[in-house]
Design goal:
Elements: H1 16-35, H2 47-60, H3 64-87, H4 101-107
Helix pairs in contact: 2-3
Length: 108
């Protein structure tokens, strides 16, 4: 793929009215981020993969996005717990076990 070289950005000077409007937008964006600290994550998946998630989520009566968040978090917790246990030389964990995906879904 041939890519054109990028040109240097041009200097743009805003008048005070434009600068004030931009500052209001920046302040609003910072406020929104502080108020809603969630992070968006996007996936590119095949249709079959999404259909599998939807079928599994339907068994629990939850949207597939909710199901995906719960099972992904649970898998990550299990992986981290297992890695910590193996690193410390034992397989079990003295920490309380987080709820299973099924238990978490049942609460939804």
């Amino acid at each position: 793929m041939n890519r054109r070289p990028l040109s240097e950005p041009e200097t743009y000077v805003m008048d005070s009215a434009d600068e004030a409007r931009v500052q209001v937008m920046i302040d609003q964006a910072e406020h929104d981020i502080a108020e809603h600290p969630e992070v968006r994550v996007n996936f590119r998946w095949g249709r079959d993969q999404v259909d599998t998630l939807r079928r599994a989520a339907a068994m629990y009566g939850v949207p597939y996005q909710t199901y995906l968040k719960i099972v992904a978090l649970r898998a990550a917790q299990d992986d981290l717990s297992r890695a910590g246990s193996e690193r410390n030389g034992h397989r079990g964990s003295a920490e309380p076990t987080p709820p299973t995906a099924e238990e978490e879904l049942a609460r939804k």
